[in-house]
Structures are given as C-alpha cells and as structure tokens.
Amino acid sequence: MQRRHVIQWGAASLAAPAFMAQAQSFPNKPIKLVIAFPAGGPTDITMRALADNASKILGQTVIVENKPGAGGTLPAQTLQTSPADGYTLAQIPLGVFRLPYTTKINWDPIKDISYVLNVTGYAFGVVVPADSQLKTWTHFVAWAKANPGKLSYGSTGTMTSPHLTMELIAQQLGLELLHVPYKGSADLMQSILGGQIMAAADSTGFAPQVEAGKLRVLNTWGAERLAKFPDAPTLKELGLNLVQNSPFGIGAPKGTPTAVVKRLHDAFKQAMEQESYRTALARYDMVPMYMSTAAYQKFAQETFTREKALVEKLGLAKPG
C-alpha cells in the first residue's frame, strides 16, 4: 500500500512540472480562432484586427477561420471536439446560450466551454433601400399591419440576436413579418441591395451602404442614438422598451489549463487595448467591451438563464 502511494505521489510530482512547462511554453505553434460569420463582414474584419494584435503579443500567428451558419453556433460546437490545449479558440455569440432550448445537443454551453474574455458587442439597427416606400419606422409598422406576413426582412441567421429581437418587436407591436435568414452580413447586404428583401436587421455592417446613399436607417437598438446615424431613433424612443448590443467573446475547450487560459486572456486583453482594434470597431459603431475570465463566466450563466425566458416568450423552444 505504501509503495503504491509512493508511486502515485511520484507520478503526480512528475506530472506537475510537465503541466507547468506546457503552460510556460504556450504557445509554441499557431492558434486557430474560429468565428461565426463569413469573411468581409464586421465580425470578420474586427476579429482579424484583434487576432493580428494578439499574434504579435503571443509570438505565434492567430489564424482566423470563418465558420458561418447555424445561428452563429458552429465555432462553439467546434470546441467540443478540439483538444483542451489552447490552440483552438472560438467566438461565442449570444446564440450559443439559446441553442439547448431550440435544438437537441449533447453538450452544455456553460459547463463545456472555458470562457477566456469578452471583447465587444454589436450595434444593431433596421435598414431599408434608399428608394423604399418605407421612409420611416412608422411607415414600416403601418405597411406590416396592412399586409400581414408580406413584409420581408433579412437577418444574419435563425435564432441570432437580430432575428430574435425583430420577433420580439413584432410580438410587442402585433406584427406578422416574413423572416429570411442569411449566413452573415455580407450575404444579407447583397440581398437587400439586390431587391430580394424589403428590410434588413443587422449589426452596423450596413454603414458603408448607408453612407453611399444606397440604404436608409429606420432605427438603432442601443441605449442612445449612434453618432454615425444621429437621425435614426432608438427602439426606446419609438416606445419599445428594448436595448440590444449582443456582447461576444472568446472561449476555449472545456478543461483548458488555467495557466493557458490566463495567458490567452492577458494577450487578448492587451490586443483589445491597441488603437488598430479600436479603429476597426469604430467603423461599425462598436466599442471594446471587456469582461475578465471570471466576469465572462458569470455573464454566460446569467445570459443562459435569460435567453431561456426569451425563447419561451417567443414560442420558439423545442418540444418536450
């Protein structure tokens, strides 16, 4: 018995330095950061700026991989089959916290992700073509009421924040809208500019098209008006008690060593503070929105609970 204890103690004592050495040498190869939306959109552009900054701090390339679809949840699913070594990271949009309530999955968004830090959140709004007959939000609501189920709007995917917020707006106003999901902002913008849909609910990736005179903003979803679109009212100004900014951050696989998570947290936090990242965010009226590892974990738990209530309120929860 004593000999077994000695062997076990010896194995543990050997493992501890090995674990510490692994953490201290991290990273010694490129890191993959999987994001939830296609190339060319606001998420892609801002996360690539962040990844570039982090690469210089970590001394290894942070490679951005786009994995759009499934309401922004594919990167989080990638973590479930990736080694817990810190070399695969994922963007965690709010849709991840809704997934168990709408889809049968065999993993838990809270227990099965190591939360590293939150980095930013989106500024959202509703846009229509510049030549649309829907000149204001009042026109939008009136047309939708007069034509139930015919006013088509696009979003960046089923169960994403733009989709659910629009459904919540429709519920509060007694509207029946026609939702058309896309894989990301780039596809959505092509569709509305091409006349396939009447409106789009999106993050402010639509800003260049608005500035070019091709789209018009009907409202924005923050607590205050956006400086870039000072004439566009907020939802609250329009009588809807809603604010949506959809924070998102970075996660790693469950069981990633604490020291590795800390190394990643410190590097990405420093990357967030650099001017190149802030400039990239500002293009889309986004700002750094830092949460530490502990704060982000708490936010995840609270959001998981809150999103359940939202999904149930909209009648979108899976049966049983």
Question: Which properties best describe this structure?
Answer:
five-stranded mixed beta sheet; 11 strands; globular; 42% helix; 320 residues
Q: What is the gist of this entry?
A:
The protein is 42% helix and 19% strand. By secondary structure, it is of the alpha/beta class. The longest helix is centred in the N-terminal third of the chain and has 24 residues, at 2-25.
Strand content: 15-25%
From the N-terminal CA to the C-terminal CA, the straight-line distance is: 51 Å
Strand order of the largest sheet: 2-1-3-10-4-11
Rg estimate, integer Å: 22 Å
Largest sheet geometry: 6 strands, mixed
Number of helices: 11
Along the chain, the helix and strand elements come as HEHEHEHEEHEHEHEHEEHHEH
- The low-confidence runs, each spanning 5 or more residues with pLDDT under 50, are none
Percent range of helical residues: 40-55%
Total number of beta strands: 11
What spatial form do the alpha-carbon principal axes imply?
globular
Would you tell me the structural class of the helices and strands? Answer: alpha/beta
Mean pLDDT over the residues? 92
Task: Describe the overall structure.
With 320 residues, the chain is α/β, with parallel strands linked by helices. The chain is 42% helix and 19% strand. It has a six-stranded mixed sheet with strand order 2-1-3-10-4-11. A five-stranded mixed sheet has the order 7-6-8-5-9. α2 runs antiparallel to α10 (275-282) and α4 packs across α11 (293-313). The longest helix has 24 residues, at 2-25. The model has no long low-confidence stretch (mean pLDDT 92).
